[in-house]
Specification:
This protein is of the alpha/beta class and about 240 residues long. Helices cover about 45% and strands about 15% of the residues. Strand 3 (about 90-95), helix 4 and strand 4 form a beta-alpha-beta unit. Helix 1 (about 15-20) crosses helix 2 and helix 3 packs parallel to helix 4 (about 105-115). The chain is globular and about 55 Å long. Bound molecules: 3-methylbut-3-enyl trihydrogen diphosphate (2 copies) and magnesium ion (MG). The site of magnesium ion has 2 residues, from loops.
């Protein structure tokens, strides 16, 4: 069975989960953190290589101030309570996105979790926070433009590899499996460039209810995809038989 090397997840549906139980939205976010914790434990057991979760999009700042504040508090408390266990499990934590918009307290927690786990070589857990796919492409273009300005790069040297090397997670393979919980079938400004050939898996399950069985279902679904990358099925079969 082919395991995905890099899974990108949109953890969606916390608010609706809470609402269905007559609870405030923040209760859904709290339950969502627990789900993520269990999912990471399972991913470590399955010896998965990399998972990147969408925790907060650049558009999520538009939510009511109270919800945004509670989410920021939750990020800090979750990092503080989980980072030791993540470290013990050999998980390497990395954040992507523009962290400069966060409070200095949150930035400190982020930096500390990254530096504590930087030499771990088990699961890579990447957290997209204040991230968006368009932001990522823009910051990559800025970096390319500054190299051109300083004459270290010529315009005709700009190619796919060049641009990709400036994107967040340039050291990772593009996600091969994308999972979105909560029933919506859209990308919501998550990875754009990197999902060119990603297999897209959508489930109605709300994020707090997503468990290890659900993860394995998604991985099984992935392993049954024929990844052709533009070739014909016959060509794919030929390379598999070689
Ligand atoms: C995802 O759940 C969590 C974040 C965006 C931070 P939602 O909060 O979007 O939950 P729904 O989609 O309203 O149910
Ligand atoms: C996407 O979920 C962002 C995160 C899960 C962090 P949203 O709930 O914000 O997406 P939309 O607004 O339904 O597209
Ligand atoms: Mg949502």
């Amino acid at each position: 069975m082919t395991k995905p090397e890099h899974i990108a997840i949109i953890m969606d549906g916390n608010g609706r989960w809470a609402k269905s139980k007559g609870l405030p939205r923040v209760a859904g976010h709290r339950a969502g953190v627990k789900t993520l914790r269990k999912l990471i434990e399972h991913a470590v057991k399955l010896r998965l290589n990399a998972i990147t979760v969408f925790a907060f999009s650049t558009e999520n700042w538009q939510r009511p101030e109270k919800e945004v504040d509670l989410l920021m508090d939750l990020f800090i408390s979750a990092l503080e309570s989980e980072v030791e266990d993540l470290h013990k499990n050999n998980v390497k934590v990395t954040f992507i996105g523009d962290r400069s918009a966060f409070s200095s307290k949150l930035q400190n927690s982020i930096n500390q979790s990254e530096s504590l786990t930087i030499n771990n070589n088990g699961l890579s857990l990447n957290v997209a926070a204040n991230y968006s796919g368009r932001w990522d492409i823009i910051q990559a273009l800025q970096s390319v433009a500054s190299e051109i300005k300083s004459n270290t790069l010529a315009i005709d040297e700009i190619n796919e590899l060049q641009v990709a090397s400036k994107l967040s997670l340039a050291n990772h393979k593009d996600p091969d499996l994308f999972i979105r919980t909560g029933g919506e079938q859209r990308i919501s400004n998550y990875f754009l460039w990197q999902t060119a050939y990603t297999e897209l898996y959508f489930t109605e399950t709300l994020w707090p209810d997503f468990d290890s069985t659900q993860l394995e279902l998604a991985i099984d679904w992935f392993s049954n995809r024929e990844r052709r990358f533009g070739k014909t099925p016959e060509q794919v079969a030929q390379t598999q038989n070689q």
